[in-house]
User: What shape does this take?
Amino acid sequence: MSVVTLAARKAARADEIRLGFERLHAEMAEYGRARGGRFWVYGSAAKARLHFASDIDILVDFDEPEVSDAVDFVETACARLNLEGDV
Assistant: This one.
């Protein structure tokens, strides 16, 4: 039986968040290009200072008819990637 320390679990979760954010970032860029808008990331994700409890702070910048769909897209993507999004 192996013991996994709290520090190791925290490090693993931080790595999971980093990898998920890399994928999310690419997906948001593609979505924005296709629909003429942008997602702005700020906070720890923007500064590359993610840790085990980080959320992803996202501002949605689309024309009014597209805002709701863009919010739905990014919230669904965060859930799928096991990220806590603050949209």
Remarks:
- The chain is about 55% helix and 15% strand.
- The chain has one domain: 18-86.
- The chain has a mean pLDDT of 96.
- The two ends are 41 Å apart (CA to CA).
